[in-house]
Amino acid sequence: MEYVIKYSKLNYGMTYKQFRQLAYGYGRRLLIKFPGTYIDNKIAGIDCLSGFGERHKELTLRKTENSSLFRTTAINTTNVMEYFDT
Q1: Are the CB atoms for 64 and 13 separated by under 8 Å?
Q2: Phi, psi (deg, nearest 5) at residue 60
Q3: Among 23, 34, 65, 85, which is disulfide-ready with 44 (CB 3.0 to 4.6 Å)?
Q4: Rounded-to-integer distance, Cα 27 and Cα 32, Å
Q5: Which residues of 34-46 are buried (b: 16+ CB within 10 A; e: fewer)?
């Protein structure tokens, strides 16, 4: 799960559903036994998500928000250099 921690530190969001799908896929690769509902739905349960959050207090599990077009286009070399020069 180092991937999830690195992903979080880079300020990229991951939805709860994406995390649960990732956890299920990872568990399948490790040949972990799952409850029948996990296998039927091909997704880990909410209990998996909450357990991971309790074990890794440094992470904040929250729903991601979209960036505005203005914010994404405002980050360019000129603006960044001007910010650090002042």
Answers
A1: yes
A2: -110, 115
A3: 23
A4: 5
A5: eeeebeeeebbbe
Distances 70 to 74, 82, 83 between C-alpha atoms, Å:
6, 17, 17
In a 3-state reduction of DSSP, which class is residue 46? helix
Per-residue pLDDT of the chain (86 residues; tens, 9 = 90+): 676 667 666 666 677 888 888 888 888 898 988 888 888 888 988 888 788 778 877 766 666 666 666 666 677 777 778 878 76
77 CA to centre of own chain: 27
What is the rounded radius of gyration, in angstroms, for the C-alpha atoms of the chain?
A: 18
